[in-house]
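In this supplementary section we document a worked example of the pipeline. Step one takes a protein sequence of length 227 as its only input; no multiple sequence alignment statistics are reported here. Step two produces a three-dimensional model, which step three serialises into structure tokens for compact storage. The input and output of this example are shown verbatim.
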Amino acid sequence: MLGPIVNALAIVVCSLLGCFVIKGIPARFEEIIKTAIGLSIVYVGIKGAFDNERVLLLIMSMVIGSIIGELININRLMNRCGSWAEKRLGMSGGTFSKGFVSASILFCTGSMAIVGSMQSGLLGNHETLLAKSILDASISLVFAASLGIGVVFSAIPVFVYQGGIVLASLAIKDLLTPDIITEMSAVGSLVVAAIGFNFLGVKEIRVANLIPAIFIPWAYLAIEKLF
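The serialised model returned by step three reads:
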């Protein structure tokens, strides 16, 4: 669990720095930084999605996963969690939920989160998650300066999500193959790209409702392997 712990701590520390040290940057700098981050996220997401080897599976996963996510309405659940925490902390303004949800999805759904957590669980290799910690720390610094304290609390779902994958990898290691990891990572990268489009204001996408799509390749390829 070393990787998930370091990743979560990096987010907390740098988010706090962003909130209290570099908070209040001029609006024009904030806007251009958010645009730069948005473009970068779109690039990283689309680049990662091109690593897939089964385009039809990726499309099927996005469609089926989005339907499942919409039925559950994960986006609303995450916003409710953010709003609940916002009220408990006596905060207002709506930026807490936005920061919490946006940062949580971004830090959880990338290919590095999936692959790195699997490497930690299966091989005891934490290098990918440690590298991800550096990237997340940089992003959380800027996010927190713009969106506030909600970004700090994104460390909780990041730790739970990545820690869960580490433990699950140990439990189902016989069902995980390089193909499954590749396709799950590709779908996760495409979900990350959607966050970038949200940042750019191109279209407001309920990204959290796309999260189940990441796990469709695992279910499909695991069943395919059995037959």
